[in-house]
Amino acid sequence: MMSVSAIRRFFSHPFFSDRRTLLGLWLLLPVAAALVKITKHHNNFLIFRGVFRHTLQQTSLYAPYPDEYFDTNHYGPFFSLIIAPFTALPEWFGLLAWLVALSMLLYVAIRQLPVRDGVQTATLWFCAHELLTALLMAQFNIATVAGIVLTFVCLQRERDFWAAFWLMLGTFVKLYGIVGLAFFFFSKHKGRFIASLLFWALVMFAAPMLISSPEYIISQYGEWYQSLTAKNAENIFAGGQNISLLGMVRKISGCATYSDLWLIVPGMVLMALPYLRWRQFQHLPFRLAIVASVLMFTVLFSTGSESSTYIIAFVGVALWYWTAPWQRSRWDIALMVFAFILTSMSPSDLFPTYIRKTWVVPYALKALPIVLIWFRLTWELLRRDYGEGLASEEFKEVEDS
Fold first, then answer.
1. Beta carbons of 22 and 121 less than 8 angstroms apart
2. Are 75 and 51 in contact (CB under 8 A)?
3. pTM for the whole thing?
C-alpha cells in the first residue's frame, strides 16, 4: 500500500495542479455523462424541455405528461427562460450543451473563490466524482451550488446587485438559492443589497410572462406551491429521496408520526449561533466556514435531497476542510475519507452492491458523513479562533476587477 508521503508526491506532480488538466476534466465529465444519457433514457432533460414548450402553450407546468416523459416538473416558471436556449438545439446536442453549461458554471464559481489556487484545485478534484453523479441526473443542483457560491463571491467584491441576481436565480428555479440570505451580514451595502433583491425578484417573477401571459404565470406559481407540498409528502420514505439528516433519522427509526420541525428548528438554531460571534466576521476563513455550513445545511435539512443533490454539500465539505486556518487533525482526514467513500462513491459500481442496497439506500446513510462533518464544523464555528496565523498564508481577499 502506498504511504501518505508517496500519495502526496504523486499528487504534487504539476499535471494534477495544472489548470488545463482540471478544465479538461470538468469538460470531459459532462461529455461522458451526455454519452451515457443519450444511449439511455434522459427523462429529466425531457421534462426541462417540456417546461419551455408548455409555457409557450400555456398549459400546466406541473401536470403529468406520460406521452412525453414520466414524473413531473418541480421547477419554477422562471426556469422556462433558462432552459429555452437548449430547447432550440437538437435533443442530443441540447443535452450535451446543458451539461457542459452546468459543469462550467460551477468550475468558474469555484475558481472565483477568495482562496489560493491550491484550495481551488483540491476542491475541484475532490468534487469531480460527485459532479459526475449530478451530471448523470442532468438536474439544476450543479447550478444551485454555483449560484450560492457566486452570491458569496459577489458580496465579497461588494457587487451586491449581482449577488442578489444569483440568490434570486436559485430561489426562482428551485427555492434552494434562498439560503444565500445567510450571507446578508457579509454585505457592506445592506440597503443596496435589499433593493437589488426586490428588483431581481420582480424581474424573475414577471419575465416568463413575456412568452406567455400574466394570468397564466400567476396561476403556475400557485401550482408550483401545490407541487412542492405534494412532493414533500411523497419524499418522506421514498428510497431515492429524502437522503438527508431528516431522512436518515426517519428511515432508521421507521417513525412517520413526528414533524420534521423537531429536527429542522434545532438545526436552524445551531446554524445561526455562530452569527453571535460577530467579531469573527472580519476573518475570511470564518466567512468561508459559514458558506460551508450553509451548503451542507441545505442538503441535510431538506426532504427533497437525493443522490445528485450532494454536489451542493460536497463543495461545502471541501471548503470546511481546506479553508480552515489551522492544521487539520487525523480525525478530520478520516472524516474526509469517510465522506468520499460513503457519500460520493456509494452510488457507483465501485461500491459493494450488497452494502448499498441493504444499508446505504434504505437508511439514507449517504448523509451520515456529511452529518458528522456539519456538527464538527458547527463546533469549530462556535469555539475556534479563525484569526489564527495560518490565515495570512492560506487566503487572499478578492480584488475588484
1. yes
2. yes
3. 0.93
